[in-house]
UniProtKB/TrEMBL annotation:
Keywords: Oxidoreductase. The lineage of its organism: Bacteria, Pseudomonadati, Pseudomonadota, Alphaproteobacteria, Rhodobacterales. This is Putative oxidoreductase YteT. Residues 22-122 form the Gfo/Idh/MocA-like oxidoreductase N-terminal domain. It comes from Roseisalinus antarcticus. One of its GO terms (molecular function) is oxidoreductase activity. Residues 162-206 are annotated as: Disordered. Residues 197-206 have a biased composition (Gly residues). InterPro entries: Gfo/Idh/MocA-like_OxRdtase_N (IPR000683), Gfo/Idh/MocA_Oxidoreductases (IPR051450), NAD(P)-bd_dom_sf (IPR036291). The keyword rRNA-binding does not apply. Residues 186-196 have a biased composition (Basic residues). Pfam families: GFO_IDH_MocA.
């Protein structure tokens, strides 16, 4: 049995990484790619040799192909809207992190999936990042004793963080900056560096 996946809305750059998982798997295939903007889906079409009859501009048309899983990578502010469109087709969904732009949006997504009988998962790659998994295992096994706290420092590209587009479209973008992006707005003087951001190389929150 071949597992069929569909990618809907390519606003976030992780769509290519997620589609690659299906493309490289011997028991999976890309059943559909969908975005109203032809330029955003062009790279995926070329990279994964997606035939024209699997390319769509409308969410309903792409979901009607009956995929086993729909991957959604819209801007965070649009997550609830797209989940609500897909849920009636009873297609299980993997939505790019973060969950939603606010609690109301998250509740709307949960309600839509419950009504449509669909499962919903949030893609958070660091949840299965090997060092994190190993650390959790060592803690659970008691190998390193009682752990009172944990801080993870990762160096990530500001481009990835900015593509989430914040709570209201581009509202949160000015909060993040990177040493590699000197043109980005700087955090207010005296503000604390957010835990988990890489010193120097990663984004910072003000």
């Amino acid at each position: 049995m071949t597992f069929r996946g569909a990618g809907i809305n390519v606003d976030h750059m992780h769509m290519g990484d997620l589609l690659r998982r299906g493309y490289d798997h011997p028991e999976a295939e890309i059943a559909a790619i969908c975005d109203a903007d032809p330029t955003r889906k062009a790279a995926a079409i070329d990279d994964f040799a997606i035939p024209g009859d699997r390319v769509f501009a409308a969410v309903a048309a792409a979901t009607a192909t009956g995929p086993d899983l729909v991957i959604l990578c819209p801007a965070t502010a649009d997550h609830a809207q797209f989940v609500a469109q897909v849920a009636p087709f009873r297609a299980n969904m993997l939505v790019e992190q973060p969950f939603a732009s606010d609690l109301a949006g998250a509740n709307r997504m949960i309600a839509a999936c419950a009504a449509g009988g669909a499962m919903l998962a949030i893609n958070w790659p660091l949840a299965w990042y090997p060092p994190h998994v190993a650390t959790k295992r060592l803690i659970d096994e008691g190998t390193i004793g009682d752990v009172l706290g944990c801080i993870s420092t990762t160096a990530t590209s500001a481009q990835v963080r900015l593509r989430h587009r914040g709570q209201q479209g581009d509202a949160v973008v000015p909060r993040f900056r990177s040493a590699r992006d000197p043109a980005a707005p700087r955090r207010p003087r005296g503000s604390r560096r957010a835990r988990g951001s890489g010193r120097g190389a990663g984004p910072r929150a003000g």
